[in-house]
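Example record

One chain of 118 residues, shown exactly as stored in the release files.
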Amino acid sequence: MFPAENLRDWRGEKVIDPDGDKIGELEAVYVDTATDQPAFATVRVGFVGRHRLGFVPLDGATVSPSAVRVRYGKKLVSDAPSIDTDGELTAADEPGVFSHYNLQYLTGASGERRLARR
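Predicted structure tokens for this chain:
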């Protein structure tokens, strides 16, 4: 996997699905708090005046000079849990993000959050 600090440099770049369809623009990177590795990105999706930030896993993502390609289709990402463009992911909403992609959600021994925005 690539370093989280490099992913932040791609903010505003296109995020595309396996077929090359544009999903949206990369807004932020969320790292796994246990490993400090990139785990999810938020992607600006929606229509003008009705944008929101959808979550997409970064496992298996690849990069090109102008886009980040994720392993998940545009429709799945569009239907993913989202937050307002000025919103925050709450601790209560984290499990739903993982569940949408059939990923296992584990918290730390003391119940700390699994994702942190970088």
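Notes: The chain has a mean pLDDT of 86.
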